[in-house]
Amino acid sequence: MNDESPRDEQVRTLLPLVRKVARRLKRLVPSLDVDDLVGDGSIGLIRAVDSFDPLRGPQLSEYARRLIVGATLNGVRRMDPVSERSRRLVRDGENQRYALAAQRGDVPSLQEMERRCPGYGRAVSAAHWGQPLSLDAPLPRGESLAFDWSDDPARIVERRMQHAELAALISGLPRRHRQVLMLHYFHEASLRAVGRRLAISPQRASQLHTSAISKLKQQSHVASH
Questions:
Q1: Phi, psi of 105 (to 5 degrees)
Q2: Which of 23, 80, 113, 225 shows its CA 20 to 30 Å from the CA of 207?
């Protein structure tokens, strides 16, 4: 006789989704501990099961995935050795620095920024040395990361997840569709220029672009389930 409640059954059924999210984050950032990620993701899963309302539209698995990812990224954020105050100082200082550079035509020195924004230099140093994604180790092939020490590590991980998911979806498209997307979005070519590169009409390039976006949406919907 199975004494498992419907709630417990839902949690057990969706646990593989937690492990899938944790393994994906682990691949993107090897320094993370997969057991910690599973623990944080499980909290998100339980919250999803308890708060799920079938009348609102999305299926439980889709709703749970969002909360699992959110809870897991919150866990990554808690592991950040850099205080929120330091990151806020860096963000505010960088905003001022870019505004001054745009106004004057030259980038203010660190000493000038320290006078304008006391504590800026120390905050930059703390953010640099506390960066959880190593700035010394080489990034994976095809991966790029701006030297933005003010950024939230959870946002960095989330962007890398999105990039990996998008790359996987694009790789599943027909060759011609991939070419149109790569030229248009990654090489910033207009659809007319894409047509010239591929020896097709601008109308055909537009049709392929629309079809590729539609296929990506369909694949994304299937992947979320």
A1: 90, 0
A2: 225
Long-range contacts of 110-116 (CB under 8 A, 24+ apart): none
pLDDT of 18 reads 92
At 124, which amino acid appears? Answer: V
Buried b (16+ CB within 10 A) or exposed e, 179-206: bbbebbeeeebebeebbeeeeeeeebbe
Rg (CA), the chain: 22
* Type of residue numbered 100: L
Tell me: the pLDDT tens digits for 99-111? 777 676 667 787 8
The reported pTM is 0.44
Phi, psi angle pair for 190, to nearest 5°: -65, 160
Instruction: From the options 2.60.40, 1.10.10, 1.20.58, 3.90.1570, give the CATH code of 172-223.
Output: 1.10.10
